[in-house]
Every structure is written in structure tokens, then in C-alpha cells.
Amino acid sequence: MAVRNVHERLLRGVPADQVGALVDGLAGPDDRLWPGRYWPPMRLDGPLATGAAGGHGPIRYTVEEYVAGRWARFRFDNRREVDGFHEFTVHEQPDGTLLRHTLSVSLHGQARLGWPLVIRWLHDALLEELLDNAERATTGTVRRPARWSSYVRVLRRVLGIDQRAVAGVR
Questions:
Q1: Measured distance CA(131)–CA(149) in Å, rounded
Q2: pTM for the full predicted model
Q3: Cα 115 → chain centroid
Q4: Could you tell me the residue range of the domain that residue 105 belongs to?
């Protein structure tokens, strides 16, 4: 089962280097992009750089490619279940900067069922909060803040995500 999932936000009037700095701070001590307050934090075994390993919650990956201020690609470690990557890219636009997150994977085994029933919903909610963080960090406000659906709230409760996120459990 192939999945391509894209989330993006145009940050009007914001220069690309400002958005790129947010990507560069991923998993660092002053990460203003990842929504770690309500989700398991992104952690790497060193600074964001090609070869750094880590993940968020039970999701494990390695930085496959990194171009400071422009692009960070993470290759999933469990290729038997999830073969592919997720990445953040920064694109200059005439009226601002587009921040895009792309997930491109082939799913196998239990992941074929887990994606449509659980993971997709949590993934989408996390990514929209991340984009809210980017907008807030670069403009000072969020025009249309993301809201969790009832289904996402139930999944978080059932999986105990709130408690693990607050405790910093990986």
C-alpha cells in the first residue's frame, strides 16, 4: 500500500531563511517547530545532520539528507513495515515562504491496517499543529488554528499519548 501525504502552509511575508531556521532547530534544545507539548517530542542522537538517528514516540528514523535552511529528509528504520521517508522542505514564493511536509511510504504488514485506522489521523493532527507553530513563530499569530477531531481525541486517550507526551516518554 503506497501512501503520499502532504501538509503545507504558506507563511505570507516571511523570508525563507526565517522558516529554514525553524527546520534547522528540529529536535534541538530550542525547537520551536515540533509540537512537543502535546505530542511525543522529536529526539535525535545529536544535532540535526545527515546520519543522526532518533524519532518521536515509537516511530524511528535516520536523517538521510539535510541541507541547512532548506531540506531535511528522514528515512524510516522499520522498512519491513514502513519503507520510505518523511521530509520538511522550504520553498521561496513571491508572497512569502511555503513550508511543506511530505510523507512518502510503502506500507506492509500491520502498518497497512494501522495507517488508515490510527496513524493517519494522529499524523495529520500533529502536522497541522506543527504548521501552526511555524506560523506563530514567524508571524506572531495563527489565522486558523488546528483543532483535534473527536476521533483524534479518542485515539489519544486510548493510546495514552497525553500522559506519555507530558512525561517525555519515547
A1: 17
A2: 0.93
A3: 16
A4: 2-167
Structural domains in the chain (count): 1
Question: What is the CATH classification number for the domain harbouring 162?
Answer: 3.30.530.20
**pLDDT digit of tens for each residue in the chain (170 aa)?**
999 999 999 999 999 999 999 999 999 999 999 999 899 999 999 999 999 999 999 999 999 999 999 999 999 999 899 999 999 999 999 999 999 999 999 999 999 999 999 999 999 999 999 999 999 999 999 999 999 999 999 999 999 887 555 444 43
- The string of DSSP letters for 79-140 reads TTTEEEEEEEEEEEETTEEEEEEEEEEEE-TTHHHHIIIIIHHHHHHHHHHHHHHHHHHHHS
The grid cell for 160 is 495514552
Name the grid cell of 17. Answer: 531563511
